[in-house]
Amino acid sequence: MTPRERADQSLTNSFDRYLQDKGKGRGGDGGNYRRNAGRELERFAEWAAGDRGDDDWTGIVPDDVDREPTFDDLDERVFREYARHLGGDRGLKQNTVQTYYRYISAWCGWCVNEGYLEAHYAQRASAMAPLPEDDGRKPGDQQAWTSEQRHALTRHVDERARDAIETYTTLPEDTDPLDKQRARYAALKAARDRALVFVLAYTAVRVGELLRDPNDPRRRGVRWEDLSLDDGSMDVYRKKQQWDAASLPDPVISPLRSYRKLMDPPTDRWPVFSTFDQRTLAGLVQDELAERGERSEAITERREEYARDLLLALDEDIRPPSITTDGARSILQRLSEAAEIDIDHPKHDYLAPHGGRRGMGEVLVRAFGYTVAARYLDNSEEMVRERYSHIEAGELGDVATEALEQID
Question: Where in the numbering of this chain does the Core-binding (CB) domain appear (predicted)?
Answer without folding.
Answer: 6-112
